[in-house]
Amino acid sequence: xxxxxxxxxxxxxxxxxxxxxxxxxxxxxxxxxxxxxxxxxxxxxxxxxxxxxxxxxxxxxxxxxxxxxxxxxxxxxxxxxxxxxxxxxxxxxxxxxxxxxxxxxxxxxxxxxxxxxxxxxxxxxxxxxxxxxxxxxxxxxxxxxxxxxxxxxxxxxxxxxxxxxxxxxxxxxxxxxxxxxxxxxxxxxxxxxxxxxxxxxxxxxxxxxxxxxxxxxxxxxxxxxxxxxxxxxxxxxxxxxxxxxxxxxxxxxxxxxxxxxxxxxxxxxxxxxxxxxxxxxxxxxxxxxxxxxxxxxxxxxxxxxxxxxxxxxxxxxxxxxxxxxxxxxxxxxxxxxxxxxxxxxxxxxxxxxxxxxxxxxxxxxxxxxxx
Length: 371
Hints:
Strand order of the largest sheet: 3-12-15-14-13-16
Mean pLDDT: 83
Distance between the termini: 81 Å
Number of helices: 3
Low-confidence stretches: 1-10, 12-38
Radius of gyration: 49 Å
Largest sheet: 6 strands, antiparallel, barrel
């Protein structure tokens, strides 16, 4: 074998040995990869802890404190106002003078009626004397029956006229007292509608007086919540006294809607209002309806379906796999679902991405990173 042929054989042997070494290395890598365990897909989930509470439906309405009785008062006779003795906010007592009108014309009418009464009494006295004379003549047959009856009729008319004028005089005397407007009940003046110098008609409203003692909360109720209001337990909480509910009862519910707001006015009588209650205060009326049992409030995003029925994904406390559990939804309140049964106190429920989960899937609780 020549020298160049020996070198060629030597290079071939080296190349073959390199190929065998590379094949062994590749075979070792393949065996190592097949022996490594496959990675498990663990999904992060957001959960909420179930808190059971009484199945009570609560609705709240803004309200205003108003008097139960608020009367428009005015003079029972017409005339010119000469004095207004109260202002808005004045506390009044029974018999207290509120305003006065000029009594001059009324006094003149009384004097005229007194003069008419004196004349009527004189006519009645003359008629009585004439009747007495003709009665004596009739007994002696010195006059006719017709003349006797005529004198009797004249006497009756004269006496009736006296009674008529006396009644007119009493009316005018009362009218003179009506020239001073007085309070009938204890209350507070809420509006003044007349001023001195103003001429008012009989019965025209002069003042508005709210009676003390009985107050109520007035709220506007939407149409869709109108039917169940009488069945609910009502309470009133003043904005100036938060955390102090006052028991109330539905006293009146308007039969027709307000033309502007399309709501119905409800008046809630306060059972035992505290001393600090003032007219015009802002309050909140709370209407509760107890359905019985316990419920849980969950975000609507926690709901999914199982056999076309509502269900939620529950994450047991001692496991990291999910359980799809059917539940009963009693109602919806905004973005919350009221779950009536199917859950227990303290259980964890997935509240996001529920439609991308599978039963038995391993998950971990996602916590929001701190900033």
